[in-house]
Amino acid sequence: MQTDPVSRFLHALSPAHRDTVQRLPREQQERLAEQWEGYLSDDTDLLSLSELDPAGAEAAAAEHVVKDLG
Questions:
Q1: pLDDT tens across 18-61, in order?
Q2: Mapped to the 3 state alphabet, what secondary structure does the chain carry?
Q3: Biggest CA-to-CA distance, the chain
Q4: Which end of the chain has the smaller Cβ count within 10 Å, N or C?
Q5: Rounded Cα–Cα distance for residues 15 and 32 (Å)
Q6: Residue ranges under compositional bias (Basic and acidic residues) (predicted)?
Q7: What angle do CA 46, 60, 67 make, to 5 degrees?
Q8: From the CA atom positions of the chain, what is the Rg in Å?
Q9: Please, is 18 exposed, middle or buried when counting C-beta atoms within 10 Å of its C-beta (0-12, 13-18, 19+)?
């Protein structure tokens, strides 16, 4: 299991978004991973989903965080 927040975040992304984020500077990747972790812990809908499908909740949160990257 990956423990690095950036690695976990990248793993949760779709392949297309993963490629986009991997091209960003490490500092920006870290900020996105931090936002992702915050979104996971704050969104009550995702908290319910995470009990049933943890990977699905992580993927949904990751896609939400990168939706404006293009």
A1: 999 999 999 999 999 999 988 888 776 665 656 677 888 888 88
A2: CCCCHHHHHHHHCCHHHHHHHHCCCHHHHHHHHHHHHHHHHHCHHHHHHHHHCHHHHHHHHHHHHHCCCC
A3: 34
A4: N
A5: 16
A6: 16-25
A7: 125
A8: 11
A9: middle
Q: What's the predicted TM-score (pTM) here? A: 0.81
Between helix 15-22 and helix 54-66 the angle, nearest 10°, is 50
Give residue 15's pLDDT band: very low, low, confident or very high (50, 70, 90): very high
Rounded CA separation 46/36 (Å): 12
Mean pLDDT to the nearest integer, 9-22? 94
**Angle between helix 15-22 and 26-42 (nearest 10):** 130
The pLDDT of residue 49: 54
Tokens encoding 8: 């976990």
